[in-house]
Amino acid sequence: MIKELISAVMICGALCAQQRPAQSSSADSWQALRFLVGTWESKTHGGSANAESSGTYTFQLELRDHVLARHAAPVACKGPAGFDCQHGDLLYIYQDAPGQPRKAIYFDNEGHVIHYTVTTPEPNMAVLLSDPAQPGPQFRLTYGLKGGVMEGKFQIRVPGQDDFRPYLEWGGAKK
């Protein structure tokens, strides 16, 4: 009986040990983007969208740390000429295969879908860039954490333009 119990414990320990490295290496692969994790209060403060809003969004690891998801709480906003809107969106950051660049996909309640490639050019900064070869404008979404404040920018470059132009900018602290 004791031999069988010891064997069962050893087998269970071996199985658990085989599973742990895969989970921890997956979690470690998120190190460059961990600064995003948390719930953030934000307020828009610039850009050509001329929208005023405040709200919260949350970045969290999901699906056993295979996806970093941003869920934005629907927020009421005032656009140009007093236009009222309610905006909500989802952003999922993932990796297709080990060693490949991270990708992201964005959805919002206005029907927009944007595919991005994700880079971390410096600590506490993430840049999501859409493919310039796709028809229509190119998009760049940037997050940077400086002094406890998360700053964000959504920029657009229309065909024929050399530079990205700010569409919406925001900033805020972690809740």
Give keywords.
single chain; alpha+beta; 175 residues; globular; disordered N terminus
Question: What's the short story on this structure?
Answer:
The chain has one helix spanning 2-28; strands at 38-46, 52-62, 67-72, 75-78, 84-87, 89-94, 102-108, 113-119, 125-130, 138-146, 149-157, 165-173.
If you had to describe this structure to a student in words, what would you say it looks like?
- The protein is of the alpha+beta class.
- Helices cover 15% and strands 50% of the residues.
- The chain has a ten-stranded antiparallel β-barrel with strand order 1-2-3-6-7-8-9-10-11-12.
- The longest helix is centred in the first third of the chain and has 27 residues, at 2-28.
- The protein is globular.
- It starts with a helix and ends with a strand.
Q: Would you spell out the secondary-structure blueprint of this structure?
A:
Elements: H1 2-28, E1 38-46, E2 52-62, E3 67-72, E4 75-78, E5 84-87, E6 89-94, E7 102-108, E8 113-119, E9 125-130, E10 138-146, E11 149-157, E12 165-173
Antiparallel strand pairs: 1-2, 1-12, 2-3, 2-4, 3-6, 4-5, 6-7, 7-8, 8-9, 9-10, 10-11, 11-12
Q: How are the strands of the largest sheet arranged?
A: 1-2-3-6-7-8-9-10-11-12
Radius of gyration: 21 Å
Percentage of residues in DSSP E strands:
over 45%
Q: Give the total of beta strands.
A: 12
Helices and strands, in N-to-C order? HEEEEEEEEEEEE
Q: Low-confidence parts, pLDDT < 50 over ≥5 residues?
A: 1-27
Q: What oligomeric state do these chains adopt? A: single chain
Alpha-beta classification: alpha+beta
Largest sheet: 10 strands, antiparallel, barrel
Counted by DSSP, the helix tally is 1
Broad shape: globular
N- and C-termini, Cα separation = 54 Å
- Mean pLDDT, nearest integer? 82
Approximate helicity band: 10-25%
